User: Fold this.
Amino acid sequence: MKYLQAYLATWLIAISITFLILDTNVFEIGYSFLDYVQFISRKVEVYLFIPGMILLIRAQKKGKQNENHKRHSIKFR
Assistant:
């Protein structure tokens, strides 16, 4: 399950960052940085970064808990 979460999180983050980079082309048509921030804040693709990070953090926490459990159970056998 943690691999599926990590895989999905990677895709969500990658899509979000890709659109952030692609949308920097608005600087060529005269947008300022504040206009750029307003422009990207209205795009749905940018908001995929937040659930991607949450899924990635959850997947890493589950992995650490399992690793600690395995170490603990092996140590006291």
